[in-house]
């Protein structure tokens, strides 16, 4: 079922591709037969920016939510975000050391960012470089991004240690246990050359990457994480290992740290199922789109930013529906990903 997005200005609700109702009463992992086994595919809609210079690690440390000393010696990259000064999301990114085999010869890093905003992101970086010894360039046309996943015995964590890394540039995706490996390769380099020989890896279309991460409740890019609007903890940045709460000052830190220490996050992005028919739903449980403070919901790519009290109601079997422009009612069924409980006891 494919629903085109509505204008942000016209409604508090935004819908995009969702899942069929047959999924509702069964764990989505059990239904996700398409992605079982060993697979690889290209990662769509991402750009790459290379930063080089003796001040690069220090420069990035003051701009990102994660802690640069984790990757400054080289090796695996990590997941992080750049925030606005008031503390809202700007761009979700991965940052990778540019290794040369087992070595990390000089301070050079690659930022994996939303492709549609690469030029804007470059301008953002240059605003802060000033006199720092850092050079930035867009290298999106030279490289391509790949996603590799499979059985745990095939993609064992040992594969990504320095001596057995799948690719010189990349990382085990830290956003969810077992989600896979993220590899950056030169465009002329074949992905098949880095795949583990212990598995039988089959290629899938790039769109399957988006479908798979949505099934697991992993937001990515500006369609899911709205620049200057989304908040990092509501966007699950903490759950996806994208924030280090012990590091020092960085742009946008104050609101993020204050929210973390108060322990109050009332909304989070969760996976959901939807169906247009709500004949069995009591109209008293159908909220008009104009009541933004009551619903405050944005649905994107099979995931929704939703108040956790509504998620709890759905988990208890109470149906919830929302009205969108054109008087069409959408019945939704949000659920908490299994990996939340594994990692965070939700």
Automatic annotation (TrEMBL):
Name of the gene encoding the protein in the UniProt record: CAF17
Keyword Transit peptide part of the UniProt annotation: yes
Species assigned in the record: Rhizopus stolonifer
Taxonomic lineage from the root: Eukaryota, Fungi, Fungi incertae sedis, Mucoromycota, Mucoromycotina
SUPFAM superfamilies: Folate-binding domain (SSF103025)
Family recorded in the similarity comment: Belongs to the GcvT family. CAF17/IBA57 subfamily.
Protein name: Ccr4 associated factor
GO CC annotations on file: mitochondrial matrix
InterPro entries named in the record: GCVT_N, TrmE/GcvT-like, YgfZ/GCV_T_CS, YgfZ/GcvT
Subcellular location(s) per record: Mitochondrion
PANTHER family cross-referenced by the UniProt entry: TRANSFERASE CAF17, MITOCHONDRIAL-RELATED
Keywords from the named record: Mitochondrion, Transit peptide
A GO BP annotation: iron-sulfur cluster assembly
Pfam families tied to this protein: GCV_T (PF01571)
Domain GCVT N-terminal: 47-150
